[in-house]
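Dear H.,

Thanks for agreeing to be a second pair of eyes. The structure we're designing against is below in token form, covering all 244 positions.
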């Protein structure tokens, strides 16, 4: 309802192409406007901006989770994507392993391949001991790791990750970034929302800086510096200069 879409057109070598004219929470509600960018195979795009700028709304528009989206969203490859939400979503009565099994079944994974991948993810996220735990008995960071593992299990074309760093300890952050790097080498594209600007500056190839529902700047770090007029600025300086 209230969704107006044109035929999606995917630009060459992009796994995700976004052209949002406007999107919001009820018909005619324009919380974000004129947002256009793409994610290439292997690329990591950072969606940044202050609280309330429209990052989550943009992600929800891409995933078609909100009622009013006017524009075009196109996914490439086989169209598979993994969405890792900021707030963990889980079943209280299922253990970590049961969550992984459910996701493996939903993705149609063959039993042996599922077990191999799931065991590897448990090891890489140092969660083997939590295999039979219920999420209610897990810490915030462990729940966050569970959500990341569910995304990595699929090996999708596109990862859409909403603020992954807040609950993770430094070692878990490094484990996550290594895995993400491997996935990018495989060809996956990543769209990541984050407030952790020093990390974003180090790892992102491209930035979309939102302010007040609109794009204040986009491009690589050189382009962001140019738009902000701060030739020597870091991402935080540019963020301050460009956002309200
Ligand atoms: N469920 C909702 N219904 C109506 N308006 C909403 C809803 N969620 C967010 N908004 C509004 O949309 C605008 C953009 O919010 P959004 O959640 O996209 O910001 P954000 O950039 O993700 O912020 P944060 O960094 O705080 O997560 C804000 O004006 C907010 O009040």
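And this is the sequence the design step returned. I haven't edited it by hand at all.
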């Amino acid at each position: 309802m209230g969704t107006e879409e044109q035929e999606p057109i995917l630009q060459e070598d992009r796994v995700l192409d976004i052209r949002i004219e406007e999107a919001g929470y009820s018909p005619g509600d324009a919380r974000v406007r004129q947002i256009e960018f793409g994610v290439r195979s292997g690329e990591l795009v950072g969606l940044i901006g202050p609280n309330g700028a429209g990052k989550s709304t943009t992600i929800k528009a891409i995933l078609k989770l909100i009622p009013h989206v006017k524009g075009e969203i196109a996914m490439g490859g086989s169209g598979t994507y993994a969405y890792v939400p900021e707030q963990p979503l889980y079943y209280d009565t299922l253990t970590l392993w049961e969550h992984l099994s459910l996701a493996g079944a939903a993705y149609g994974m063959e039993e042996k391949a599922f077990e191999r991948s799931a065991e590897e993810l448990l090891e890489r996220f140092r969660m083997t001991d939590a295999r039979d735990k219920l999420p209610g008995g897990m810490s915030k960071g462990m729940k966050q790791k569970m959500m990341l593992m569910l995304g990595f299990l699929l090996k999708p074309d596109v990862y859409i990750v909403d603020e992954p760093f807040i609950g993770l300890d430094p070692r878990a952050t490094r484990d996550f970034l290594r895995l993400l790097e491997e996935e990018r080498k495989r060809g996956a594209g990543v769209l990541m929302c984050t407030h952790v600007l020093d990390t974003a500056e180090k790892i992102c190839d491209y930035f979309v800086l939102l302010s007040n529902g609109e794009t204040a700047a986009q491009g690589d770090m050189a382009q962001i510096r140019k738009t902000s007029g701060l030739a020597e600025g870091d991402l935080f300086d540019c963020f301050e200069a460009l956002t309200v």
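Two observations from my side: The longest strand covers residues 14-24. The CA atoms of residues 26 and 210 lie 21 Å apart.

Warmly,
E.
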